[in-house]
Structures are given as structure tokens and as C-alpha cells.
Amino acid sequence: MTTPPPPSDPPTVHLPTAVDAPADDLAPETEAKDTSPNRRLRWLVFNASAAAAGHLAIWSVTGDPMAGVHLVARMATSVPQLGRAVLTGVAAWAGWKGARLIRLDRLPGGSAFCIGAAFGAALWGQGTTPLIADAMAVAHPWSTLLAPLLTTGPVAAACWRLLDSRTTQARAPIRWVARVPLATVVLSSALYAPGALL
């Protein structure tokens, strides 16, 4: 039986320390940390200036500095009608899909059954305005606070999807111009929501 050779000494590794590094290598890092602006402050200034520009534009067109807030108030009172429109669309889609799920489209004249199911479900959706108004009356303080979110949420989502998300790689001025509608909608909703309870 052969014996393995004895282990050799491991090589020594010399790691550089702060004392070994030249002073010029450390100086730029500390200077960069000291002079870089706060990211949160930049975000706040970016969005606040965009919202202010949007409100100034609305003010210059309408002559009312709170025109955006008044629009949110009018939208909030129409939540039952907006809910009816959404429920009508969802019910029509569900009627169409339900008819296809039970395979009515395979019968002779099957597409007419699918259209009829979608139409019937849409008619049901048209009658939901009193139901939504009653639900809002039962949940009074919360429905008043959530009404601006229910009405401006889809508008803000559309502004973000159509404008803001498409300019993420653009230069700062272009991103700022694309952020103005979204920031204006958010600020209008934020300004209206506390006053809805008063």
C-alpha cells in the first residue's frame, strides 16, 4: 500500500488594506457620497413640480385654481353610474363566456345564443345603479372616502400606462412632461378626499 505525499504549505496571500491603498483611490468615493443628492428629495421635487405644473395649466385654462378638485368631486358623485357601466361590460363578457362554457356555440345558430346571453347579462348590469347607490349609503363614511379612488384610480392607471411607463428610459425633461397628467390626477384626488367628509 502506498502512502500519499505529505501536504505542502499553502501559499500566503497578501490582501491590501486601507493603509496600503493610495490616498487618491479613497478620496473620490467619499466625495461622491457627500455630494450626491438625496433620492427621496429628488423624487419629491420631481413629482411635486409636475403636479404643480398640471394644476397651473388647469388654472390658466379654467380660471379656477381648484378646477381639478371640482372635477374629482363631480366624478365621485357619479360612482353609481360608472359602476353600472363597468358591471354592464363585465356582465356582458361573463354572459358570452358562460354561453361558450356550456357549449351553446356548438348548437345550430350557436353564436346567436352567445349574443343573447351577453345581451341578457348586460341588461342585468344596466339595472344595478340602485344597488350600488344603496351599498354606498350603507357604507357611508368609507364610500365617501373611496369614491375619489374609485373614479380617479382608472384615470391615473391610464395616465401611467399610456404616458409614464413608456418614458422610463427617456431623459428627465421628457419623463417630467409625461408625469404631469398622472401627478395632477393624484394631487386632485388627494385634495378632494379629505374635504369629502367635511
UniProtKB/TrEMBL annotation:
Lineage: Bacteria, Bacillati, Actinomycetota, Actinomycetes, Kitasatosporales
Positions of the UniProt region annotated as Disordered: 1-35
UniProtKB keywords: Membrane, Transmembrane, Transmembrane helix
Segments passing through the bilayer: 43-62, 82-99, 106-125, 145-164, 176-197
Top-rank taxon, per record: Bacteria
The protein, known as: DUF3995 domain-containing protein
Compositional bias of kind Pro residues: 1-10
Record has Isomerase as a keyword: no
Keyword field contains Lipid metabolism: no
